[in-house]
Amino acid sequence: MLPYTKHEITNEDIEAVTEVMRRGALTKGSKIEEFEAALCAYTGCKHAVVMSSGTAALHAAAFALETKRAIVPAMSFVATANCARYVGAEVNIVDVEDKHLHLDKWLVNDFFRLEQTPPTGNTTVITCDFAGVQCPMNDFAYLKNKHGFRLLVDGCHSFGIKPSPHADITCYSFHPAKLITTGEGGVAVTNDALLAGAMRRFRDHGIDTPQALRDASNQINYDVRMLGFNYRMTDMQAALGISQLKRADQYLAARKVVRKWYDESMRNTDLFTLLDATDSANHLCVVRFENRYVRDFVYKYMRDLKYGVTLHYPVISQFTAYKGPVTPVAQHASDHTLSLPLYPAMTHADVVKVLANVRQAITNYTHHSHKSQIVQGVASSGGFEKQYLSPAYVQGKSLAPTPHLGGRPLDPLNHYHTLDDRYFDTLDKSKK
Ligand SMILES: Cc1ncc(COP(=O)(O)O)c(C=O)c1O
């Protein structure tokens, strides 16, 4: 059994947690501030507000940014969108681009360019650093200046990559699937003292004065200035976080090595492709298959063998709770990808084994039963493939991984030909 991810707990971690249990305050003690200071040092941000989960951090951030309307990517964990719903904002689900599955900057630009009536209140654009690769923050900073929105980064996949100063707030999760863990937990980091203050109050029932200050000044009374929540992290969790944070860079390096093994072992494979992961925290190892039937077959085959392959993610706009627009690029990714196991303790032999079994699954599928169905299935799966993929792909001749038109994904609303091409083209060139 290889899970898709696996955390590590060391004796030092256990010692740090039990030390709090023996001697410290279990909650509202000094470990929270200590963890927050360590997170500021690690991320380079002025303020860190730790919370009971990444979702709580996103909720607090959406609140602090006074979000009345949000733009969220179709491809992310649902919490990215939920946080805007929690604060009563209108949620607009926008498609992703197909290289990194990041929120599509061109569509974001069009969203503002084509809007009829300017909104009342703040619009927050929420990006997700999908699989661990940071979104193109210079481009989003340009759009932010141009259209005047707030920028919230869901960095739950990218802890370890320095957060961008262009983001108003960046949120991380410390769920056991993430780079470091506190069991459950999260943090919102920002350089803005007012935003940090709002998130602290939000975390603590709307109470203005922190417990430590109240204790220090023997203050008997306090004010509640707004509706808040109890989103606090315990001191035991914070102690675990402090201990884990010391190994964050070590985990990053180990994940990078595992990803390199995948890259090398896949060099001669054209049966499936790896999502690009240059400059990544390597949170996920996402592979894309030629068609969805092969993907489904591989998923079942691997799960039967107890490999923890999984899907990141079903498309948010297709959830019953959202029922948003069709987002073809996210839909294509959701239908054709799987995440393979990737975590620091994996060995080269593990990677070879995983890939050998994926190849075996594809061979089984092709040879034993469904060959005609592959061609027929893709060709007859109707609207989507016919509309968005190249003819060669539809005929089952090509393993072209993604739909393209002049380097950009096709879009049914034909949004793509009206944007500030020159600006982005200049940026793209200057990066080369
Ligand atoms: C992209 C993304 N956003 C938000 C979250 C929510 O974080 P948490 O599980 O800590 O609430 C996660 C974690 O699963 C995530 O992967």
What is the topological layout?
Layout: H1 11-23, H2 30-43, E1 47-51, H3 54-64, E2 67-73, H4 79-86, E3 90-94, H5 105-113, E4 122-128, H6 137-147, E5 150-154, E6 169-173, E7 186-190, H7 193-203, H8 211-216, H9 235-245, H10 248-265, E8 272-274, E9 285-289, H11 292-304, H12 328-336, E10 337-340, H13 348-369, H14 371-380, H15 383-388, H16 391-394, H17 421-431
Parallel strand pairs: 2-3, 2-4, 4-5, 5-6
Antiparallel strand pairs: 1-7, 6-7, 8-9, 9-10
The structure holds pyridoxal-5'-phosphate (PLP).
In short, what is this structure?
The chain has 432 residues and is α/β, with parallel strands linked by helices. The protein has 17 helices and 10 strands. Strands 1-7-6-5-4-2-3 form a 7-stranded mixed beta sheet, with helices on both faces.
What is the SS-derived class?
Answer: alpha/beta
Largest sheet report: 7 strands, mixed
**What share of the residues does DSSP label as strand, in percent?**
5-15%
Average residue-wise pLDDT: 86
Instruction: Enumerate the distinct ligands.
Output: pyridoxal-5'-phosphate
- The CATH C-level class name of the largest domain: Alpha Beta
The best one-word shape is globular
SS elements, strand count: 10
Major sheet: arrangement of strands = 1-7-6-5-4-2-3
Question: Architecture of the largest domain, according to CATH?
Answer: 3-Layer(aba) Sandwich
- N- to C-terminal distance: 41 Å
In CATH, the topology of the largest domain is named: Aspartate Aminotransferase, domain 2
Order of helices and strands: HHEHEHEHEHEEEHHHHEEHHEHHHHH
Unreliable residue stretches:
370-432
Number of alpha- plus pi-helical segments: 17
Question: At the fourth CATH level, what is the homologous superfamily of the largest domain?
Answer: Type I PLP-dependent aspartate aminotransferase-like (Major domain)
How many domain units?
2
Helix fraction by DSSP (H/I, runs of at least 4): 40-55%
Rg result: 23 Å
